[in-house]
Amino acid sequence: MLALEGSLFRYKFSPGALQAFESPVNHGHKRFVIYMGGLTDGLLACSYVEKLAAACDEKGWALVQPLISSAYAGYGCGSLDRDVAEIAECMSYLDSTRTVSDLAFVGHSTGCQQAVHLMATAPAPVRQKIRAVVLQAPVSDREAWSLEDDEKGRHRLLAEAQGLVDAGRPSALLSELHYGFVPMSASRYVSLFARGGADDLFSSDFSDDELASLLGHMSTRGQREGLGRLVREPLPSHPGVRVLFALSGADEYVPPSVDCKGLSERFAKAAGDSAKALVIEGANHNLQTPDNAADTFVSAVGKLLDEAIDRVFSTDADF
Predict the structure, then answer these.
(1) Are the C-beta atoms of residues 81 and 117 closer than 8 Å to each other?
(2) CA distances to 102, 109, 148, 222, 314 from 141, in Å
(3) Please, are residues 227 and 272 in contact by the beta-carbon 8 Å criterion?
(4) CATH 3.40.50.1820 occupies which residues in the chain?
């Protein structure tokens, strides 16, 4: 069994303390990869995290796993805005307490939504240092929701949530627990499962123009020019960012009718020339199967990190 050694530190002290786990122990790296999992996840969100940490270390990057307020069961009353604010706070803390030359972000599942919003809304000094972004299993919660049983019950709950939001009560809790154990606010339910909600970024029924409006900032040009409707501020001097959309070919949260390869290519095209797509054939959502899925993904991340710092980029043509 693999084990991950490192150090636990606080990056936020009030009003509630938040912590992060940094590995390896006593490293001298100046580059940091931030790793975030999905709904119900916390530390070691996926079984490949130990391998990812080892690969990052070999290439001169430390791996940091922040715990945010939405970790574990906390996501039900959270939001992507809160997630991004806390992740950016962790990055800023690293920058103020370490010597940080470059940052990267690897997100799994809802960590992919966090990646998109991070690159759109995080403070400029944070975004300026992000040189690589990896989105592993960027799936549509709305489409995954459609695979669940009790269609009438789902739509009844969405109508309840939308009604509370429309009535000015977005923080009100729904009458049912999500997954049977997580209290869910009306606003988060709408964000996750309504078309066009804040979490609805990767649905296959979006047009190319809609995807471009959501993902257009996920590239060097997108950062420099502030492309897409989500980005708040262009960064004309951004040194360049590499982006990888890594989809699982047998993701259990993706409807069988969805063409994963075609969708991954649409994501990369919507983002821009510094983004690329990877489909890990036969892989499930968290890359636990088949046996080679994790290794394929970790190798791709390592290559992307190398590409991100090989040279200084000037235009999208450099990619």
Answers:
(1) yes
(2) 31, 9, 11, 25, 36
(3) yes
(4) 7-140+202-318
- Residue where the block lists tokens 């501020």: 233
Amino acid at the residue 71 = A
Question: 254: phi > 0 → left, psi -120 to 50 → alpha, else beta; which?
Answer: beta
Instruction: Please provide the CATH number assigned to the domain covering 7-140+202-318.
Output: 3.40.50.1820
Spell out the per-residue pLDDT of the chain, length 319, in tens: 578 999 999 999 988 899 999 999 999 999 999 999 999 999 999 999 999 999 999 999 999 999 999 999 999 999 999 999 999 999 999 999 999 999 999 999 999 999 999 999 999 999 999 999 999 999 999 999 999 888 899 999 999 999 999 999 999 999 999 989 999 999 999 999 999 999 999 999 999 999 999 999 999 999 999 999 999 999 999 999 999 999 999 999 999 999 999 999 999 999 999 999 999 999 999 999 999 999 999 999 999 999 998 744 444 444 4
Q: Where are the strands (E) in 233-274, listed by range?
A: 242-248
Through-space distance between the first and last CA atoms of the chain, rounded to whole angstroms? 38
